[in-house]
Design a protein that fits this description.
By secondary structure, the chain is of the alpha/beta class. The chain has helices spanning 50-61, 81-97, 110-120, 125-152, and strands at 9-14, 18-24, 31-38, 66-71, 102-106. The radius of gyration is 15 Å and the shape is globular. One of its GO terms (molecular function) is hydrolase activity, acting on ester bonds.
């Protein structure tokens, strides 16, 4: 069995308007919400979008050893337009945060689950929209961490 590499991982939920970010503890047990970044869509192709620059700063600040980005697939496991959009984002992000590796993780239903959990806690409407991306990033990262731990057993 391979040994688990210790270190903080960042989980990322890429949306059209916002990017939710979560972080793990150094032992890879628990994911917690970190921040929601506004997407910077009005940037020249050669420039680094501000959301990616902020994400790179978070990688440095938290000494992240890996970034796990949710890949939206449909219930049948197929990739649609949203997945193509995320893959393009990841292609650029890899350049910005190199040499820190970026891993794609199935994020099927993460936003739905996050929204449901927030609603169960009484967080609705505007308050929910403000944090649902972070909560989705937590779902993505926690699922990935759990899968890695199962693999190590």
């Amino acid at each position: 069995m391979a040994e688990w590499s210790r270190g903080v991982r960042l989980g990322v939920d890429v949306g059209q308007v916002r990017v939710g970010v979560a972080r793990s503890d150094p032992h890879g047990v628990l994911a917690t919400p970190l921040v929601t970044l506004a997407r910077d869509r009005a940037v020249a192709p050669e420039a680094v979008p501000s959301d990616m620059a902020e994400l790179a700063a978070l990688v440095t600040e938290h000494e992240a050893v890996e970034v796990v980005v949710g890949l939206p697939v449909n219930l049948a496991g197929r990739q649609g337009p949203a997945a193509v959009h995320v893959q393009a984002y990841v292609g650029r992000l890899v350049e910005v945060i190199s040499p820190v590796p970026v891993t794609l993780a199935d994020e099927r239903m993460s936003t739905v689950v996050a929204s449901r959990r927030l609603a169960e806690r009484g967080v609705r409407g505007r308050r929910q929209r403000a944090v649902v991306d972070q909560a989705a990033a937590v779902e993505i990262l926690q699922s990935w961490l759990d899968a890695q731990r199962r693999r190590m057993q």
